[in-house]
Amino acid sequence: MAKKPNDVVITGIGIVSCHGVGRQSHEALLSGPESPQPVIDNERFAPYPVHPAPEIDWSEQIPRRGDQRQMEAWQRLGVFTAGLALDDAGLKEDAELCGSMDMIVAAGGGERDVAVDTMIVNKAMSRNDRDHVLNEVLTTELRPTLFLAQLSNLLAGNISIVHKVTGSSKTFMGEETAGVSALATAFERIRAGQSTHALVGGAYNAERQDMLLLQEGVQSLAQGAWQPLWSRSNPGGGIVSGSASAFLVLESRDHAEARGAQIYAAVGFVDGDRGKRAEGGLEKRLEGLADRSNVADSSEILVLSGASGLYELRDREKQFIADRWPSAALRGYTGLTGHTLEAQFPIGVALGALALKSGAALPCFDAAAEADMAGPAKSAIVTAVGFMHGEGLAVLDAE
Amino acid sequence: MTKSAYSDHLGRPLIAVTGMGIITSLGQGKDDNWNALTSGVSGIHAITRFPTDELSTRICGTVDFMDTPDIASELSFALADAATREAVSQAGINGDFQGPLFVAAPPVECEWVDRFAIADEAGFAGDQDNAYDGLLEVMRKRPHPDFTRRALFGGVAERLSDRYGTRGLPVTLSTACASGATAIQLGVDAIRQGRTERALTVATDGSVNAEALIRFSLLSALSTQNDPPEKASKPFNKDRDGFVIAEGGAALVLESLESAVARGATVLGILKGYGEKADHFHRTRSSPDGAPAIATVQAALDDAGLDASGIGYINAHGTSTPENDKMEYLSLSTVFGEHLPAIPVSSNKSMIGHTLTAAGAVEAVFSLLTIRTGTLPPTINYENPDPAIELDVVPNVKRDQAVTSVLSNSFGFGGQNACLVMTAEPA
């Protein structure tokens, strides 16, 4: 594709997952000869397996202990990973560019204090005046700072405080689609010349029962021993949650080249859609996104699927991909990182950019269901099909 | 009109507002709200939704007249829906909206009533080591899809999309107390980018429950001047002691002026510009020098192509917290300098309280009504002026004064700052 000054390019990648901290550990994963081995904790949240966060030296990106203490795990993970992305883009120490940088964060929120919630539930069991129980316990037991550590827009707020990114600050919500909208919005702004550089990403902490409860309300979680993504079946619903985060620095080509930045890949397309999924609705919308992305079938395409693991949606998405891009190489990245809700789509885009830059043929993530790649990909398609709603698709092109 | 009549000073499409809807504690719809607001009526009242015996704050500006269960996501949707219906109808758009949707919605979590119901189903004896172990066991036995649906952050946008036939993936956003302004800003961006001729921007907050109130209370953000409730919100007064938590919803149909004129729509005003800038000083406090807020106001003026002499009225963020009102005055006096004494600045929150996620859009609707009616809504409860804040706050009684340009400020926790500039339709 002809290069244009307002192309949107990726110049910085921060990523943390159960496979490790930072770009290098994930590059190794994508260019190794063997299928990556799953990193799973089967014990702590049994019967639910989760992909745990790796060991992290927080002070590498969040030097002040006071700052670390002001955040719950998902915020801390996101602030840390955002720092990695800024470092990677060579912008961490650039006060001027951080001060004019746009920021869009895909965020959930609300990490509960399990001990306080348990206290409330226990008291409520023996009392008729539950509203009073709530007031009594919450006013005396709730940590005043917990609210801010739970608040959705305070992931972005903490990035501003710790990394001084202050051009603008927006937080998008809405499960997986938050990540899709975040990338799409930054992409459109840069393409239209409204922005020159932006930090976009999300973070998810899977090691928390309040979110497991939310997902298990629709019996969506996998149970028992971990199984490969594409062949996963009972017991449970198929989702294995993962603690992970990805942040990307997006720039206009002009802006990136003027400062001599490395370019991982160019973003050719990002958009999403939503609606009823029955009666072919899902396939029709994916078809619409694919049409607009304008990527023809080729063996030089890598499709990174963010399938949540829910059986029916997973199978329908896989069939759609097989029909639409039969020559492409499919890799289900949820099998590596786990399902990460708001962070899901940014993680897929980060992995796609790393894969294109590495110039390597990726190993199979699930050898029983994925074909070998003959050579490096020239384009990567990233998908996200929300576990409850919404779909997204991005196209990245190698430089 | 010539082509240039549809473009702004930077050659971008001018953006018209062609539909507005609003709901607050003062009532439903523009007429009821505007009558009450300009009459200096307060919507602040004692909390009846939940008991308040143990609480230091016992007043609110909740919307208690909707036929909706006391579930934050349900009420937030109902408020958004009511405002959207009014806006779309005023815009004369029948059938599918056919443009993108931007929704500022509160980050609602699952409700205590739901947790208790599951605990009852589990038959807890009250001696759990970890309640969630037992709650999860209930879910494994039987799914509870409503439990999940109520706590999805994208839920309000999903339902609005279905009901109004908006196009593509809606954006659900939160920039704390600036959210409503941010939703409008995203709609402006989409039209300026040429991606659409119209956008639906909605902001809602129906999330006042005991836990939300206690959280804000623990941060010392809320007024504790409970008696009488309608006197508690007193922006720019010396004895102001916090905001009054409130609910509301607002919706604006944005449309390129060219498209609005072409289809014969009534133009209610122009969304002329916006500014934004994040603050890295503190999680809840603003930079003491006011620099980010100053930069935000200045950016909004620049974006609108106006200078400090170009604003006729300021719709203040004016929360009635000691910190906000001081900082807001600092930023306004810095940007407007010698012009400021001649610019009336009033706070709707003196009457409706702080509608949080909805505030930026609620106050944008009031700003446009100010332009359309030539009436400035007052700052009520202005009885003990803060001598350090020298503003013409339109004290206590509305004022008839024609204005053609309004600045509306929104500032929020997490270093969020967003300002909008709205003007009358070009002659």
Automatic annotation (TrEMBL), chain A:
Keywords: Acyltransferase, Transferase. Gene3D superfamilies: 3.40.47.10. Residues 6-255 form the Beta-ketoacyl synthase-like N-terminal domain. It is an enzyme of class 2 (transferase). One of its GO terms (molecular function) is 3-oxoacyl-[acyl-carrier-protein] synthase activity. Its EC number is 2.3.1.179. This is Beta-ketoacyl-ACP synthase. It comes from Hoeflea poritis.
Automatic annotation (TrEMBL), chain B:
It comes from the Bacteria. It is an enzyme of class 2 (transferase). PROSITE patterns: KS3_1, KS3_2. Residues 12-424 form the Ketosynthase family 3 (KS3) domain. InterPro entries: Beta-ketoacyl_synthase, Ketoacyl_synth_AS, Ketoacyl_synth_C, Ketoacyl_synth_N, PKS_Beta-ketoAc_synthase_dom, Thiolase-like. Pathway: Lipid metabolism; fatty acid biosynthesis. Coiled coil: none annotated. Its EC number is 2.3.1.179. One of its GO terms (molecular function) is 3-oxoacyl-[acyl-carrier-protein] synthase activity. Gene3D superfamilies: 3.40.47.10. SUPFAM superfamilies: Thiolase-like. Keywords: Acyltransferase, Transferase. CDD domains: KAS_I_II. Transmembrane segments: none annotated. Belongs to the thiolase-like superfamily. Beta-ketoacyl-ACP synthases family. This is Beta-ketoacyl-ACP synthase. It comes from Hoeflea poritis.
